[in-house]
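Quick question: what would this complex look like in 3D?
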Amino acid sequence: MATIAGTLAQPTQSGVWSWITTVDHKRIGVLYGVTGFSFFLWGGVLALLMRTQLAVPNGTVIESDRFSQLFTMHALTMIFLAIMPMGAGFFNYMIPLMIGARDVAFPRLNALSYWTFLGGAMILSLSFLFEAPGGGWFNYAPLSERPYSDGLGIDFYVVGLLTLGLSSLMAALNFAVTIINLRAPGMTMMRMPVFVWMTFVISILLILALPPLTVGLIQLLFDRQFGTHFFIATEGGDPLLWQHIFWIFGHPEVYILILPAMGIVSEVLPTFSRKPLFGYPAIVFSGIAIGVLSWVVWSHHMFTTGMGSVPRAVFAVNTMIIGVPTGIKVFNWLATLYGGSIRFTTAMYFAVAFIATFTIGGISGVMHASPPVDSQHQDTYFVVAHLHYVLFGGAIMGIFSGIYYWFPKMTGRFLGETLGRWHFWLLFIGMQMTFFPMHFLGIAGMPRRIYTYDDGLDWGFWNMFATIGSYVLAVSLLFFIWNFFRSMRREPSAPANPWDAPTLEWGTSSPPPEHDFDAIYTVRSREPLWYDRDHGIAAPVATGEHIHLPPPSYYPILIAIGITLLGVGALSHLAISALGGVIAFYGVWGWALEPTD
Amino acid sequence: MAHAPAVAHGGAHVTSTGTENRKLLMWIFLGSECLFFGSLIATYLVFKHQVIERGIGPFPIDVTIDGKVEHGIFDIPLTSTSTFVLLMSSVTMVLAVYGAHQHRLKMMKLGLLSTMLLGLVFLGFQVYEFRTFGHEGLNLTTNMFGATFFLLTGFHGTHVGVGVLYLGSLLAASFRRNGLGRETGEHVEIAGLYWHFVDIVWIVIFTVLYLIP
Amino acid sequence: MAHGAEHTEQEHGLRPMQYVAIGAGLAVITIIELWISYADLGSLMVPLLLGLSAFKFVVVVGWFMHLRFDHRLYTQAFAASLTLGVLVTLALLTLYWGDAADSIRGYREWLNSG
Ligand code: HEM
Ligand SMILES: [Cu+2]
């Protein structure tokens, strides 16, 4: 079905079926982004419920079991169903464009990742209809074991995360290969945009960190379903083993959450400072260093478990070292701003705010890198403050920056700058109001995950303050949603490169045609579009070569349904699992035999 | 998942590094599997000594408790035989790959078939071993040795089973009119990578679990 | 893509009989391993066994899986992951068998004592 460049290999399709069978990385990116953002709102609702309960001492809005489910599901939703998929949305949409390719290496595998993600997200979220998990997102044993949590909640956790892990693994494999092998001519590794580099590091981290989590989850599953005792000390097992396994995954995971934001900021800052990123190699290598070091710090989550002094010292030092590459990045971003002719767009506001708030979170992180200090911080609100400064102030700010930055590319429309300012300032103020007082509360001894607290403890004021802040945050999101719909109703007006940005995704129309580029760029510099502009090199023109696009396929969603049923069966009746297995196997066969040209 | 389609790459059939996408995918996936089996082996070893300290048998090796000798449960000659079988399946697999690359389709099909059969024999040994252990009082729940042992070897066995299905699918598809198509060599080679990997995992398991006391 | 591979195969791969010979060699090593596990070699035993199995591992990966004849990137990807897997395993074991084990044992005794 190959045709001449400039026309599409398939007629542009619309309608639900075209989305279900799509293998186009841009559409899959949109699916990831929209799903992720919806779950972000849902996770926010859960957070607001908690903040409402905690606003005053002896609150009575939510009782204790439900509160445990709320903080567990809030965290799982935000981490696995909001931040990761929103990041994946950008990877999908942008990576092929940024490296000058026409799709990812395995388009159908890409679709399969998305649908499997959706299945896992459904399993996890629908647990509210039965019994939601309540063991915290890190789900420590032995609380997670049958004798202490008898209901279905923990099983939803296990099955949901196994499914989501499978989806992430497939996506990560795909992106690793895409970045290694599909770069446009001339785009060496050291000419790749930083966002592509960070995606590469994240992919590698996922590929290597998910298996330990999978093993831990399977062991927990066996404990609960088949009577083993991996994590029950009284029966010869060891609850600390779960902690080790979880955090061997868990620490790389937090960098998986923050690196996309770091990549986005490294794109936004140079564009709006009108000068190349300062210290590109330093930023790339510190990104790699973070990836490597994230493997040797996991036990800083376990300082208070009695690991012995030598391990504690080792992990403390490693944790402090990981602050160095992080700091290097911060200084390079600042140096990028220095002397630039800065345009303060909303994307830029978010990027600059990211640097500030993320740094605060980084600093509190280095504080509890010290075991004696950490034994004061552990399980208090200080940790909650820390993790929200890096995840909300870091990851979410970065993602919003990316949304404002790439919105014209993805939709051909601009988000309103005035509404954008409202969104930014309310979000920024709300975020500081919500999470800064948590430092005080933590130091004052307020434990995390308590569903209420007494009057005489003097925690009332700052809790009320934080709750008001969280409502300000919620209002800021309304401005964003308003902004979004207002823009979508407008006629597309964005030119190919509205920001005069240097990277290749801006070298094609906004939004890009289905085949991405009429002709493939040859890359001569780290800032290809700036280089071509300054050297008077015209954009490459279509040569009339044949552009082959992979045909749509319904096998990805079929296999994903099979995988999801496998999981559902593990929660209900094994017959459903068997059905799921058959569907998945049939799907794999159909997939393998389906012609792709 | 190795049947993903070729790239939509603007007609250019060269990749940036000159490596093949699918093969690279398989290698990276096998890297991921290293962490998977690494975690399982680590769990086994973590509990190995604690099981003996706790004193609730059966044990993998001979253990003296209160002056009484409890005999180890491993049957080394039996497992050596099944190890040998799996090793031989790697030889037949490599011949299948050779056949596929050289367009010697009969050699390829014979290779695939014998690899599958050897894999099934290996699984037969494993079922026999598991049942014997069951009769001797070791199951998943007896002690941590049972739990970690069955989980590790069970997952290895599952990988062998998936491999048999994988090779079986290729074999079945190779009987179609145009066989495995233009990329026969690549398809069989990638399946071979998976199969050999399962074999090397067993090489490690055999030494670390069975041979080292 | 596939065409390149065929050439490498012809130029650098081995012939069937060579593969069979390697397989035979591996079988012999397995027998030696078996013998070592029964013989009384004292403290030599564990390093010997580990060494031999590492040797078998390398032979299968290098020749049967063609890493020796293939693009270096495959080797790098696999070797890096393998190294990480081994290191994580070792780190965990160090935590359990080293000084961490004392505290865990203490905890268990405390549990058992009532
Ligand atoms: C919309 C603004 C947000 C508010 C008001 C909020 C509020 C809260 C509250 C009240 C808790 C429970 C504290 C406790 O009692 O343990 C919590 C925990 C947590 N939040 Fe948020 N949060 C927000 C956004 C986010 C985001 C964007 C993330 C992204 C990952 C996130 C990740 C977490 C994590 C990981 C925990 C710890 C859960 C646990 O320990 O089980 N939060 N948050
Ligand atoms: Cu950490």
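Answer marked as accepted. The pocket of copper (II) ion (ligand 2) is lined by residues A 251, 254, 300-301 (CB under 6 Å).
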